[in-house]
Design goal:
two-stranded antiparallel sheet, alpha/beta, 10-stranded mixed sheet, globular, single chain
Length: 430
């Protein structure tokens, strides 16, 4: 308790330091469903509602030229990526070492499921859902996708610190492709790890599906219902999303990353996206992402939620950019990793970062709607009875939703000394 209070005090001190307001705040901020510092839902985590934000300036240095690609080793400092993973785990759990942090994460997960005090067990499988949405084959794509350096940093942490055997780990992007730069970087270091994508071949395995595994809480028309067996057969899942915007929904973070686990076509034009978009007037509605977040084989198996903010992007596609002008980034890449044990809280922080940096992002108004529904899933504002397995057991709150007070101080309720809402723990690499 004393350690937690000290951490909290340090965080409060950090977020009350005066910082310059970035130039883009003159643009009217997008409208949101929830007012600042008015939390709803039940916080989750070892430290309830905690979100750890690690920042390592200089981790990403791509200059935007065609002479190099953003994912080249020359443009990314791997040692700093490893620091980002380690710092996020330590700050999320309050442990002093990466190894102890992993033990705490596994133990918390299993305790919540009736396995008191159990950590990682021999032979248990872990599936990692990456976001490689902007890929079209195994050939490298210059568009924003999963970072090979950040993924390798996570894999090294799992193998060397958590003690998970390579053969028990699967990296999956069932709806798209694991490109060469991602596969080669990680496979050369850890050849025992499995990679699953839409086509298979070239060392990758072709995704297989459990058909009809997800039964949506409302009629979703032709929306794909199969789930990749990489996830249905896993014991644990890690959701590793990206920090970027998305037309239609405003953002694509951990909640939308689940769509890539379903039996969709690799050509997005051939898929349906029913109930992905929020109502433009802010009135509550059923949101498909809540079913993903609460499904027993997706959010229900998730050990850790991560948002790779090494580069970040205003839009869903294209090369990373533009640079981030808001503090504390100072006109550089965000060079950040965000982690949480609360799937609602982490996406709320992602929305606050994106909408304050890019207030003119397409469709950003009410982009928090799916999180308000998720936080109150047992009594959703839309009146939806969320039951993604269709077994008559409705979801309860999936986490806590809250917006920070402002982009200058970036304080949530727990940073302000209240025993509710989100706590944001920020650490910058010195």
């Amino acid at each position: 308790m004393r350690t937690t209070n000290l951490i909290k005090a340090a965080v409060i001190a950090i977020f009350t330091l005066p910082v310059a307001v970035h130039a883009q705040t003159v643009q009217q901020a997008p409208k949101q469903c929830l007012a600042p510092n008015t939390p709803v839902g039940t916080p989750r985590g070892i430290h309830p509602g905690r979100v750890a934000w690690s920042h390592a300036p200089g981790a990403a240095t791509w200059d935007g030229s065609q002479a190099s690609a953003w994912f080249d080793d020359s443009c990314n400092d791997y040692a700093l990526c490893r620091w980002l993973v380690a710092a996020t785990l330590r700050n999320l759990t309050g442990e002093k070492s990466e190894k102890r942090a992993w033990r705490a994460v596994f133990t918390y997960f299993n305790t919540q499921r009736g396995k008191q005090g159990k950590s990682y067990g021999k032979g248990e499988k872990i599936a990692i859902k990456v976001n490689n949405n902007n890929t079209y084959s195994h050939e490298d794509s210059r568009e924003i996708n999963a970072s090979p350096q950040m993924l390798l940093a996570l894999l090294e942490s799992l193998v060397e610190e958590a003690g998970v055997p390579q053969q028990c780990i699967t990296v999956a992007e069932p709806s798209r492709f694991i490109t060469d730069y991602l596969y080669n970087k990680c496979h050369s270091r850890y050849p025992g790890i499995r990679f699953v994508d839409n086509s298979g071949g070239d060392g990758r395995m072709k995704a297989e599906y459990s058909e009809g595994a997800i039964r949506f809480s409302k009629d979703n028309g032709r929306l794909a219902r199969g789930l990749a067996t990489a996830f249905t057969e896993a014991d644990y899942v890690i959701n590793m999303a990206l920090l970027k915007g998305h037309v239609g929904q405003g953002v694509t973070l951990c909640g939308k990353n689940w769509y890539g686990c379903t039996s969709i076509n690799a050509d997005w034009r051939k898929n349906t996206h029913n109930n992905f978009d929020q109502n433009r007037d802010g009135t509550p509605k059923y949101m498909t992402f809540v079913d993903f977040m609460g499904h027993k084989d997706l959010g229900g198996k998730t050990l850790l939620w991560l948002i790779d903010g090494l580069y970040g992007c205003k839009n869903v596609g294209g090369e990373p950019g533009p640079l981030w002008t808001m503090e504390p980034f100072g006109g550089q890449w965000p060079c950040s990793l965000i982690g949480s044990l609360d799937p609602v809280a982490i996406d709320m922080v992602g929305i606050d970062l994106l909408t304050n940096q890019f207030p003119d992002m397409p469709d950003a108004d009410y982009s928090d709607m799916y999180l308000i529904e998720a936080a109150q899933a047992g009594n959703a504002p839309s009146g939806t009875a969320y039951d993604p397995e269709g077994d008559g057991t409705p979801l309860k709150s999936l986490g806590v939703a809250e917006h920070w007070n402002n982009a200058t101080n970036r304080q949530y309720s727990r940073n302000l000394g209240r025993e509710e809402g989100i706590e944001l723990v920020y650490e910058m690499k010195k």
